[in-house]
Every structure is written in structure tokens, then in C-alpha cells.
Design a protein that fits this description.
alpha/beta; Rossmann fold; seven-stranded mixed sheet; 21% strand; globular
Length: 284
């Protein structure tokens, strides 16, 4: 699959997940996602009146919270390459009456802002790892910043530290008898190595790079709820499973639930989770 074909397939898969993301955004954020957001917003050091660009915003969770930090004098632009995702965020922004938040369809690998003023901060949670060319996206992020502006991001840590997701992925790969992803292939764990991520950010021309691993817990009402909730918001993974006959999907689910029994039962499930977060700035 070429990079262009991957981008189009990814856009379609995440567009199909947009309604699920919109529903999830109505609930209080918990677990690893909340841990990543807290780290990112604190690291960004946002001030009243600043301009913030959120890339690959999904449901806009980070950007809408950033709006509270920059206040009515500031502004947040939430962007995603999926028109459906942007539409969902736009609806929520209008419903909440957030006058300092705007939305736009924008590809993080090709940030076209026209005459837009540069931004004080660029935020991207769980986005770069899924992009065909994360280095290009990081360069574009730097280009959108003013001199001294900050980039703050979060990606998933190693697969072995994120069994809440890797168990399902492993069950699918095992069932399909597929080889593991090649290094450099876009995916949830593609940027999990701290040194590799730091090097990419520096290669993109940003300085003062700091990288940290953040640990958290993913809690679900049961193992069955875990399976349902992960798949509800996992665009590419859900697409893979939906392509299988119902009997085969049941086998994958059974294998995943059996392996996940170490983390829970029919009453509760608690998985460890790991996020790799980073901050950097554009040289003055």
C-alpha cells in the first residue's frame, strides 16, 4: 500500500468512527487519555491570550480543554483530516457556546494555514504515530509555530505496557496468521521508543526536546465492556475485524478475552497503560 492509499484508507476508517468518538466525548475522560491530556496541558504552559493549534483532534478533547487555559482573549483551532471528525467537534463547540474555539479540516502532514498568524502552541494527542510520514508532520507542526512556540504531544508507549490494546491486536494478527508490522509502519506503537521519538522531533528542527513516559490504568466495567469500548473507537482495528465472517470474529474475541482474564472478569477489568509524551520548542 502506498502512502497515499494508506492516508485515504485511514481517513475513511476514522471518519466511520467519528460518531463513536463524539459519543465518548460526552463522558468524563479517564484513564490513560486523561493522564496524557493532563501532562500535555501542564507541559504546554498555556497562557491567557495565546493561540493554539490542535492537530489530529479526533473528538477535540485536548483542544476544548486548552480553550479554558487561553481564555476568551485566546483562541484554539481544532483540526483533523477527517471531515466527519471535524463536523462532530464543530457541533459540540457550537452546543457548548465556546466562542474561542474554531474548527477546520486540515491534514497534519500538509498544514495549509494561508495568512493565519503563527501559533504559540501545537498540541497533538495520539496522532503522529498513525501518520504515514510523522517526520513530515512534525516539520509542518514546527512551521505553524512562532519562534519560541511550543510543541506538545502524546503517543502510546510500548505494546507490552499497553495490553488493553495489544491483546486485541495480537489476537487479530494471530488469527490472520499475519507477520508483525515492519519497523516504521504507522500504528499505535510505532513511536513508542523514547530515543527514536526525541530524534524525530530534533530532526524536524525543534529544540529543547523533553520526553517522558507516563503510566496509567485503563478501567472497564467488565472484560466484555473492555472489548466493546476499545473496538467502538478503534477505526482501523474495527475495520479489520468487521471484514471477517461472524464466526471468525467470535474466535478472535474468545482468544482475546481468554488472554485478558489476568486483568479482570465479568465485574471489572483494570489494565496497565503507558503513554510517551514529549515537549519541544521552535528555535528563536
Amino acid at each position: 500500500m502506498s502512502d497515499g492509499e494508506y492516508r485515504e484508507a485511514s481517513r475513511q476508517q476514522w471518519s466511520e468512527a467519528a460518531s463513536s468518538w463524539a459519543r465518548a466525548a460526552e463522558e468524563e475522560e479517564t484513564g490513560a487519555s486523561r493522564a496524557a491530556t493532563v501532562w500535555m496541558l501542564e507541559a504546554a504552559g498555556l497562557q491567557p491570550g495565546e493561540r493554539v493549534l490542535e492537530l489530529a483532534c479526533g473528538a477535540g478533547r485536548v483542544g476544548l480543554q486548552a480553550a479554558g487555559w487561553v481564555g476568551p482573549e485566546g483562541m484554539v483551532l481544532c483540526t483533523d483530516f477527517s471531515e466527519a471528525m471535524v463536523g462532530a467537534v464543530t457541533e459540540r463547540v457550537e452546543r457548548l457556546g465556546l466562542s474561542n474555539v474554531s474548527t477546520r479540516v486540515l491534514d497534519a502532514e500538509h498544514v495549509e494555514l494561508g495568512d493565519e498568524k503563527p501559533f504559540d502552541a501545537v498540541l497533538c494527542r495520539f496522532g503522529y504515530m498513525l501518520m504515514a510520514d510523522p517526520l513530515q508532520a512534525l516539520r509542518e507542526s514546527g512551521r505553524a509555530l512562532r519562534p519560541g512556540g511550543r510543541l506538545v504531544l502524546g503517543v502510546w508507549g510500548p505494546s507490552e505496557k499497553n495490553p488493553w490494546l495489544s491483546i486485541i491486536l495480537g489476537a487479530v494478527i494471530s488469527h490472520l496468521n499475519a507477520p508483525p508490522p515492519q519497523p516504521g509502519t504507522p500504528g499505535p506503537f510505532s513511536l513508542c521508543d523514547l530515543d527514536h521519538l526525541k530524534g524525530l522531533i530534533e530532526q524536524a528542527g525543534l529544540g529543547g526536546v523533553e520526553v517522558a513516559e507516563v503510566e496509567a490504568k485503563q478501567r472497564y466495567d467488565s472484560l466484555a465492556a473492555w472489548w466493546d469500548e476499545v473496538l467502538e473507537v478503534s477505526g482501523p482495528l474495527t475495520t479489520m475485524l468487521n471484514a471477517l465472517p461472524e464466526e471468525e470474529r467470535a474466535k478472535v474475541r474468545g482468544a482475546a478475552l481468554a488472554e485478558a482474564e489476568q486483568f479482570g472478569d465479568e465485574d471489572e477489568a483494570v489494565f496497565p497503560a503507558s503513554i510517551v509524551c514529549a515537549k519541544a520548542h521552535k528555535p528563536v
